[in-house]
Structure formats: C-alpha cells, structure tokens
Design a protein that fits this description.
alpha+beta, 3 helices, 31% helix, rod-shaped, 192 residues
Length: 192
Amino acid sequence: MKKVTFITLALAAGVALSTPTAFARRDDYGRYEVRYDWATVIDVDPIVERTRRPVTRDVCYDQPVDRYEPGYTARRDHTGSTLLGAVIGGALGNQVGKGDGRKAATIAGAVIGGAVGNNASHRRGDYYETSGGYVRDYETRCRQETAWRGGRDVVGYEVTYRYRGDIFHTTMDHHPGNRLRVRVDRGVTPAE
C-alpha cells in the first residue's frame, strides 16, 4: 500500500509542477508576482496564406494619325497689276492728247499707270493657299491594364518554446529568433 501511495503522490506532484501555477510566486499579500525571463525557442513554423492582388500598369503604344497640313505660298506676281495699271494709264493718256501729242500722252499714261499698279501690288502682300495634304504622324496613347498576381504571404508564426523543461505554444506576428522573452506569473506567456 505504501508503494501505491508514493506513486500517487509522485504523479500528483508532477501534475502540480507542470501546471502554470507552478511557476507563479505569491507576494506577501497573496498576489501573484510578475517577473520576466527568457525561454528557448524550439521550433518556428510560418503561417502562410495564398493571396491574389491586382497589379496595374500603363501600356503605351504609338497610334498612327493622319492630319491635314495646309501649304501656303506667298504670291508676289506683280505682272498683272503692272499691266492693268499700264492699260488704264495708256487709255487715260490717249484721251488727253491730240495728234502727235496723243502718242506721247498714251505712252506717258501707260508708264505712269504701270508704275502705280506695280507700287500698289507691293503694298498688298497677299498669301494664297496653293498646296496642302495629309501627313502621317504618330501619337503616343496609353491605357491601364490590370494583371492579377498570386503569391504566398507569411501572416504569422507558430512558435514552440521551452521554459524550465516545459513546452509551450503560441502564435506571433514576427519571428522570435532563438530566445523568447516571457512573462511569468500564473502562467508563462510571451512578453510584449
């Protein structure tokens, strides 16, 4: 009977020591003391989620465009104005003179009229559209395209650590490294 009692007591002590309260200390008022220590990290497994996210990019290309390009030429032909002035001047000179003077008046009128017509055409710098056409040009145009990219993102870590011979598990948002700072009170938890 003594053997059974001793084994039972040993089992009960082992269970009591493995519970979290085995690490706790009480102060003079019966409250659990909080202390910090270091635990050894045994295993770290990443928690991975598959993701799909849109990736938008601009796709640009050169679009051919036909545009009309007018051509302008300066028209400075003074011949018509000079001839018209000479004819009008000659006709007026012919009206003025008599006999041999009529020929001289006609010639003088034609010369003076031609000079006036030529001078008038110099002051009037008219431009006339004489040519033009369509020209092939290119414009850069862009549009947005969205492609879906798949990936695997690490969203956390399953951490297994040992403190004073006991094994604990927790989930963390970062990799803890080889050691983990723990808070020891009624239990053993990772310290923030």
